[in-house]
Design goal:
Largest sheet: none
Number of domains: 2
Order of helices and strands: HHHHHHHHHHHHHHHHHHH
Structural class: mainly alpha
Radius of gyration: 38 Å
Oligomer: single chain
Length: 397
C-alpha cells in the first residue's frame, strides 16, 4: 500500500531501509573472503605433495627395515641387479680366476630369476670344478698353512689349522715380535691378534670347539690385515681394542722367548700378557666374522671385513650371510655397504616423513579453507538475492 503521494507507509519504508543496509553489509564481507589465494595455495601444495609424499612413504618403509639386512639388500638389488650386470660380473670374475665370486653371481641370478647364458654357467661350473681338484686344493692348503695368506677355501683351511695348533699364531708373533724387538716397524695389529689367538686357543680346546667361531674370526682378521682387505674403521677399532686387551710392556719383555720350537713358552707368555676378559667387543667381532665364513665362505668374510665400518655392521653382514648363503659375495659386490646399511641417514629419512606429513596437513587445511569460503560465498549470494527480492516486493507494495 502507498499513501496519497505514492510513497510506502513509514513502517514499510523503515523495513526497506534495513533490508538494503543488510544487503550492503554482505558485499564487503563477501569481498574479504577471497577464494583465489586459497585455491592457489592448494594447487601449490598439491604439486609439492606429488614430489614429497612418495619419498616420505619410501622413507617410512626404509626405517621399518632398518634392522633387516636381507630386506635392505633386496631393495638395493632391485635397483642395481639385472642380467647385464650379472653377465658382466661373472665374466670379470672368471677373468680374475675368482670362481667363487662367479658362482656366487650364478646363484644370485638363479635366486632372483635373472636369465643368463647357459654357456656362461657351464664355464663357471668348470672353473669351480678345476679349483676344487685335489692338486689345486693341496697346493692352496699348503700355501695357507705356511704363509697365512690363503687365496681360497682350501688355503684358509690350512691357515686355520695352523692357527688352531698355534703354529700360525706363533709364526706371526715371532715375525712381528722380532721386528719390534730390533726397533724396526712392526705391525702391532697382527702381533696383538696373534697373541690373543694364542691366549684363546687353550679355551678352544677346553670347550671342545665352542670358541671355534672366534678362533676362525681372529684368523680371518689377520688374513684381512695382511692382504689389505679390512676397512680403515675396523682397523682402528681393533687397534683400540688391543690396547685395552694386551699388556704391551709385558709382551715386549716376553717377546725374546717366543719360538716356534717352544710353543708352550709362547702360549704362556701370550696368556700372561693378554687379558682375555677385556676382549669382549673384539671376541664378538671375531665370532661374527666366523659366522660369515661358516655360512658364505672365506672370501665373503674377507669382503665383509673390507666393507663393514664397525662391529655392528659386521654383525649385519653375518645376519645377511645366514640368509643369503653363497649369494652373499655377489650381493656385497653389487650393493656394497648399501647391502647392510641404509644409504640415507636416519635423520634425513625422518625429515622426509616430517615434510610429507606437513605437506599433507597443509593440503587438507587449504582444501578445507577453500571449501568453507566457497560455501560462504554461495550463502552470501543467496542472502543478497533474497534481500533484493524482498526489497523489490516492498517497493512494489
Amino acid at each position: 500500500m502507498r499513501d496519497a503521494q505514492g510513497f510506502a507507509p513509514p513502517g514499510q519504508q523503515e523495513s526497506l531501509r534495513e533490508s538494503v543496509q543488510d544487503a550492503a553489509q554482505l558485499r564487503p564481507a563477501a569481498r574479504t573472503r577471497r577464494i583465489a589465494p586459497v585455491l592457489l595455495l592448494f594447487v601449490l601444495l598439491a604439486a609439492l605433495a606429488v614430489y614429497v609424499v612418495p619419498r616420505g612413504v619410501d622413507a617410512q618403509y626404509l626405517l621399518s627395515i632398518e634392522d633387516d639386512p636381507a630386506e635392505i639388500a633386496g631393495r638395493a638389488l632391485d635397483e642395481k641387479f639385472n642380467a647385464e650386470v650379472a653377465t658382466r660380473e661373472i665374466e670379470q670374475a672368471l677373468a680374475a680366476k675368482d670362481s667363487d665370486l662367479a658362482k656366487s653371481f650364478v646363484d644370485l641370478a638363479a635366486d632372483r630369476k635373472v636369465a643368463i647364458d647357459p654357456a656362461l654357467t657351464d664355464k663357471v661350473n668348470a672353473a669351480v670344478a678345476e679349483d676344487a681338484s685335489a692338486g689345486h686344493a693341496a697346493q692352496s692348503f699348503a700355501l695357507g698353512l705356511v704363509t697365512g695368506e690363503p687365496n681360497d677355501i682350501a688355503g684358509f683351511a690350512g691357515t686355520t689349522l695352523g692357527d688352531l695348533f698355534v703354529f700360525g699364531d706363533i709364526r706371526d708373533a715371532v715375525h712381528e715380535g722380532s721386528r719390534l724387538a730390533s726397533g724396526q716397524e712392526a705391525d702391532e695389529l697382527i702381533l696383538g691378534l696373534a697373541c690373543v689367538g694364542l691366549a684363546i686357543t687353550a679355551g678352544t680346546y677346553a670347550t671342545l670347539g665352542a670358541a671355534g667361531p672366534a678362533r676362525v674370526g681372529l684368523s680371518l682378521a689377520k688374513v684381512a690385515r695382511k692382504t689389505s682387505r679390512i676397512s680403515a674403521d675396523l682397523t682402528a677399532y681393533i687397534g683400540r681394542s688391543l690396547r685395552g686387551v694386551v699388556d704391551w710392556s709385558q709382551l715386549k719383555t716376553a717377546i725374546g722367548g717366543f719360538s716356534i720350537a717352544q710353543p708352550a713358552l709362547a702360549i704362556r707368555a701370550a696368556r700372561n700378557a693378554v687379558k682375555v676378559e677385556r676382549a669382549g667387543g673384539l671376541m664378538r667381532l671375531a665370532r661374527d666374522t666366523g659366522r660369515v665364513q661358516a655360512k658364505a665362505g672365506t672370501q665373503a668374510a674377507l669382503d665383509g671385513l673390507k666393507i663393514a665400518q664397525s662391529p655392528r655392521e659386521m654383525a649385519r653382514v653375518a645376519t645377511l650371510a645366514e640368509k643369503a648363503g653363497s649369494r652373499t659375495r655377489a650381493i656385497l659386490k653389487v650393493a656394497g655397504r648399501g647391502a647392510i646399511a641404509l644409504t640415507m641417514a636416519v635423520f634425513d629419512l625422518g625429515m622426509w616423513i616430517l615434510w610429507a606429513l606437513a605437506t599433507l596437513f597443509g593440503l587438507v587445511s587449504s582444501l578445507k579453507g577453500a571449501t568453507e569460503r566457497t560455501t560462504q560465498r554461495v550463502i552470501d549470494y543467496r542472502k543478497r538475492r533474497r534481500l533484493r527480492r524482498l526489497a523489490e516486493m516492498q517497493v512494489r507494495a
